[in-house]
Every structure is written in C-alpha cells, then in structure tokens.
Amino acid sequence: MAPDPKAAEPPVVGSGQRYFTWDEVAQRSGREKERWLVIDRKVYNISEFVRRHPGGSRVISHYAGQDATDPFTAFHIDKALVRKYMNSLLIGELSPEQPSFEPTKNKELVDEFRELRASVEQMGLMKPNLGFFLLYLLHILLMDVMAWLVLWSFGMSLVPFLLSAVLLSAVQAQAGWLQHDFGHLSVFSTSKWNHLIHHFVIGHLKGAPASWWNHMHFQHHAKPNCFRKDPDLNMHPFFFTLGKILSVELGKQKKKYMPYNHQHKYFCLIGPPALVIFYFQWYIFYFAVQRKKWVDLVWMLSFYARMALAYVPLVGLKGFLGLFLLVRFLESHWFVWVTQMNHIPMHIEYDQNKDWLSTQLQATCNVHKSFFNDWFSGHLNFQIEHHLFPTMPRHNYHKVAPLVRSLCTKHGIKYQSKPLLSAFADIVYSLKESGQLWLDAYLHQ
After folding, report:
1. What's the gap between Cα 318 and its chain centre?
2. Which is the CATH superfamily of the domain at 5-97?
3. What residues does the Cytochrome b5 heme-binding domain cover (predicted)?
4. Long-range contacts, 162-168 (Cβ 8 Å, 24+)
5. How confident is the model over 54-110, as pLDDT tens digits?
6. Residue ranges per domain, the chain?
C-alpha cells in the first residue's frame, strides 16, 4: 500500500501554526538535503538559505537538525535586524511539551550560561573601547614605518635586514590579531563598519581576503575541534593524526598516510615553518579567484604593491623577495604556535551536539595573563572567553574570566589555564601521545 503523503506532513495547530518535535528537527540535518534548525523554540527551514547566508553556507549547516540559539546569540551583534531576514524561513515552532533544546543537554547548565550572558551584557562587557583599538592600530603602523626606516637609514647589511624582518613579522602577526577583532564584529556597533575596516586590515596590511577568513574561522568557532566541521582539523589524517579518539579510529582502519608516531618531530619541520609560506600564501589567491571575490583581490594586491614600492628601491628585487619570504617564515612560526596552543592539546572528536559551554570548554584552554602574553597572542591567551563570547572586545576578556571559571567549577567542567611555554610544549606532547595511540591501534587492534 502506498504511503499517504499527507501523513508525513507536520501537524497544523490552531490558526495554522505548525508544531514539531526534536525528533523531526533532528531528521533534517542535511543528510537528505533538507536542513532545519531551532532558535528560541522557532523552527527554521534553511535548506535554500544556506547558499545566501552572509557567514557562509557551512557554518550555518553545521547546526542543521540542532538547537542554534546560543551560536546565533554569540555571532550576531544586531539580532533584531537578522531576525527580520529570518521571518521568511520560519516554518513553525517546537510543540509545547518539547523542551527548548535537545533533551540530551543539561538544562541547568544551559540556563545558567544564558543568565551569565545576560549579566555580561548588563555589565557593559560587550561594549568596546575604541581608543584601545585605535592605539593598537597605531602601534602596528608605527612598527611598519620603523621597519622601512631601518633599511632606509642603515642600508642593506645583515643586522638592519634582520631587524627590519623582525619588525615586519611583528606587524604581520599583530595585524592578524587586529583583523580578527574586526572579523568578529567586536570593535564597532554595526556590522558595516567592522566589515569595512576588516577589509583594510586583513587585505591592505596583510594581503589576505576577508571572505576566506570568514569562511574558515566561523566554522571553527561554531564547532571547535569537531572533525569534518572544524576546518582547522583538515590536517587530519593526511599530515597528522589528532586526538585520542580519531587516532585510535585511524589505527584500527589500518590507515597510514604519514609515520604518525613521529609526528611530534616533523611537526616542527612542516608545521610552523611552512603553513603560511607554502599553504596560505598561494591558497588565498586561489580562494579569491575561484570564488570571484574581486574586492578582496584588489585589497590584497594593494598590499603587495605597497610592499614592493616601499622596499624594492631600497634592497632591489632579490632583496625584497628574500625579505618577504623571511617575514612570512617568522610570521608562520608565530601564527601556528599561538593558534594551536589552545586547541590541539584539547579534546578532538566528531560533533556530539553538546551545549554551547561544554562544546567550547572541551576544545579550548587559556594561557596565563601577562602584558607580554596578551600582546604576543593578541589576547587569544583568553581563548575560553573568546570562544564563549566571540563578539566581546578583547580588552574585557580578563574581566569575564572569573565568572566563567566560577560557572565551570559549579558544574564540574575543567577550566584550564597554563604558562605560555607549557602551552607550546603541550602541542608536542599531545601529538606524541596521539601518534603513539595510532601506532598501538595500527599494530594490535
């Protein structure tokens, strides 16, 4: 007997309002092309919208079939405006007997984190100090000018050349942390101004496309350390095996793309020295051209034109190319050690659809506060607070940290903070551990 197509339709209640259960929502996770998600008990069909989503199709798709209330709150600064665009996607709401989020989540923990979020907003911790970011930009521009003045004043000898390279590397690293602020909409009260200055900082000061950063980075924030959803884990399994669970799984499958039991050694050879130079440097151009991001491409070319006009007359073409490669080499070390110290040593697995607080805390850790650590990492030593409140201006992370730690203590969630060098060492230790787990599973399971 053929099934009745009407039987599969969601029930219509009252004046045409459709009610759904969590089981129905979970079935629309994208595996069968249809994608739904829930925000504040409202059910939205995002199947077609994903291609038009300003933050990229993947980041919103990662929450298909799930409650997305907390990431929605975390990522958007003008929620009222966004909700206007969401009205056309609304198809109903959860049935009255259904909980506001998946039954597998800890209601007390979810409610208390949302109360914390409301308290943080009332305390004014989401409001930026524009003077802080202006001074930060000025110190980057000052180092940029100093790097040029060193070569202009002292000429093309070894010491001035190296000093200029170090200064330019600091410019690139610090501009990277600053563009991160604008990309997260944490500087201005409107998205428009954040996006505009983001293009300037990442495009003109660093030579990279803003669209590429948005596409990659927001996925990482949405599902950190979740394999196949966090693009920062794409190095698994072709170069490294990451995390205890994935490493054992790879070993059981008898897969060996690299000698993973030695990955803690070759990480220092193919990780920090090479990422920016041999991957990012060409991929960002491929990304911009392949996706026809012509505005991004113009901003990027303005960076290379400015650098060439400034340094070729001083050191010649070969000298400029050597200086540029050295700067990218130093920047790559800086970038990789800082960005990976908070994540690689943490829990890595497939998406378990946990609550927002648990998702972020199992994937992030902090590095102790100090003037140097704050500057060196662009305040990303407060990775926990940054992941919980991604639009919070960085100068307020240390103020909210005690509140987050208190909530974690209450619910038995591990809140890690460590010295900078220990955080660097933990990258190597965790790679060694996961490589050994892979080898044991490969040989014996």
Report:
1. 36
2. Cytochrome b5-like heme/steroid binding domain (3.10.120.10)
3. 17-95
4. 164/323, 165/323, 165/326, 165/327, 165/330, 166/330, 167/143, 168/143, 168/144, 168/323, 168/327
5. 888 899 999 999 999 999 999 999 888 888 889 999 999 999 999 999 999 999 999
6. 5-97, 106-445
